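Support reply, case 0932

Customer input (verbatim):
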Amino acid sequence: MACQSRRPHSHPNQHTEAELKLIRDLRRRNPSLGMVELWHRLRLRGYTRRPESLFRVMRKLGMFPAAEKKPAYKPKPYEQMTYPGQRVQVDVKVVPRRCIADSELRLFQYTAIDEFTRLRFLAAYPEQSTYSSAGFLKRLFKWYARRGIRVECVQTDNGFEFTNRFSNSKHDLPTLFEATAAQLGIHHKLIRPYTPRHNGKVERSHREDQKRFYACHSFYSLDDFDKQLAVHNRRSNNFPMRPLAWRSPREFTVQYV
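Our regenerated output:
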């Protein structure tokens, strides 16, 4: 007494056996032929259906090869840092427009985060350029040095404010940021293109900045933004973090410097 399907077993406008044989034969003789050209050749042999009907019946007959399964991505084991300053991730965050009172003003947050201690240094800039990046590199080098940390390596993405790696005309010309890094004796490491997860710590910190800082603050000038960002920087460096066993980056750093 169970309900059975009411779907009809046939349809008055379905493909006839002659049409199906024509499709099978032509497809067998031309296995690499495109859909439109196959439909065009079928029309020359008396086929009157539309391309959409041809596609549906070919899919029903299993004439399309199965899509190749992409191999599962296997990330390389993460290289854990073993001491402060071994590698510092650097990136730039564009300040949301809705946080800026002046519609003509553009603000950018430069961020440096030590991979081992998670100790961050933030700075405000009015532009995103290799000049700003070089100035920020000098400032972060001194800022970490005052806290007993010697920066050995900085890791960035492939933006033009850091490198000319993907420039058409200046590929071999070092940027001011790269020249400054060489002058300070800092190794500059570039992440894999289009792979922001390789700079995951600084990217995650920007997400936290959006939630804890930019969602509830407004800025009226570069000087105002710089002062508020300094307060936020001190607060974030004293905020407990799970990867540090619920200690703040500042508390964690004291053990090693």
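We compared this against your earlier run and they match. Two observations from our side: The mean pLDDT is 93. The longest strand covers residues 88-94. Please reopen the case if you see a mismatch on your end.
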